[in-house]
Amino acid sequence: MTMSALFQTAIVNIGTIITGDLAEPVIAGDTIICRDSSIAIVGTASAADVEACDVIIDAAGAVACPGLIDSHVHITFGDYTPRQKTVGFLESYTHGGITTAISASEVHVPGRPGDPAGVKALAIAARKCFEHFRPGGMRVHAGAVILEPGLTREDFDELARNCVRLAKAGFGAFASPYDYAPFVRMARESGMITMAHTGGSSIPGSSGIWADPVLAMNPDVSFHVNGGPVAMPDADFPRLVNESAIALQICTAGNLRTALLVARLLEEKEALERLLVATDTPTGSGIMPLGILYTVSHLASLGGMAPEIAIAAATGNNARVYGLNSGIVARGRDADIILLDACAGGATGDALSALRNGDIAAVGAVITDGRPRFVGRSRNTPAPTRSIRVARTTVMNDFAAHH
Fold first, then answer.
1. The pLDDT value given to residue 395
2. 17 near 43, Cβ under 8 Å?
3. What is the helix (H) or strand (E) element at residue 43, kind and residue range?
């Protein structure tokens, strides 16, 4: 790509700006301008600011929101899943509006090691492999060390020095899930974000983990709290909501009824900032490029949640828990933005109404790092109702040639 020193993208004629921030989920305005990899202007912009941009995207009244953050993706190495023997699944997820994937541990790597040196090496290698590899423009936060007996505080410090920020409890060779607690504590003391499998066992070698051991571990995130894929007893959900400050992640590949239960309990407690939306894929449930949109739609249509709040659970809430600069549409944030619309031929006229109706939204454009990845139509959703298009571009590259 030949570009100026400062690459700028403008999105104009936006119908609604969803911020991803629970404190102010919708803001006024019709324009977003990205300068290099950051959002520079949100709301209104002068004609001169727009004309100075390298690419101008006409949203045609569509909804703009942060790129979706999937905080439970089973990556391995490269854009390949051995669980489903599929190449290119991450790039395909960007066509579902997912612009960030967070590793749920590289547990699906064939022959994965179980000794301290091996799990450290696996996490560090995964982290470093994805530092500069961005399938479809997606940000991939890889390298989640699998907690195993024998790991020490020095091991966690070494992982942290190598920029491994994630630690996962649930697949280690522990006799009891309560045995994870001191290892979760050591990981947190080393500055790592800790996650715990919650629910029934998911793969051979894992065990069911219910509220008692999760509370004993006190991780940052209770993974697929609604079941991955099997849920814990209903009586355990109020305990996690009321007896902890743990973020509770609901996943598309889990139990839909208990996902709605978790959302209701958190809403009643006025603690929706703890609600995270993810997919928990690829697994036996398959590959789900539209998984986040389906769960957002379930929350809005079956759970009665405002669509902009459900979107925040899939964007800004994940960003806050994982310490990311993406996930919120605001000045200085990472320029990861998607345009959503009602699907052509549907019963509704805009993306938010579609989600309330139980439909998915059409993905009309994805911008990551301030660069358009596609504009007009996702290959994984029906076409948008509106004609979202590139109104002008000064950039002659593959993107311009195809749009």
1. 74
2. yes
3. strand 38-43
Rounded to whole angstroms, the Cα distance separating 201 from 208 reads 5
Mean pLDDT of all residues belonging to the chain: 95
Report the pLDDT value the prediction gives residue 228, as an integer from 0 to 100: 81
User: Residue for token digits 């195809």?
Assistant: 402
The answer to whether residues 65 and 367 touch, using CB atoms and an 8 Å cutoff, is no
376 sits in the region (left: phi over 0; alpha: psi -120 to 50; else beta) called: left
Instruction: Give strand ranges (E) for 297-355.
Output: 337-341
- Give, in order, the Cα–Cα distances in Å from 162 to each of 17, 147, 193: 37, 17, 14
- Residues in Cβ contact with 379 at an 8 Å cutoff, skipping those fewer than 6 apart: 92, 95
Question: What does the alpha-carbon distance between residue 305 and residue 321 come to, in Å, rounded to a whole number?
Answer: 21
Angle value at C-alpha 150, between 144 and 155, nearest 5 degrees: 55
pLDDT on residue 3 = 44
pTM: 0.96
**pLDDT value for 1:** 39
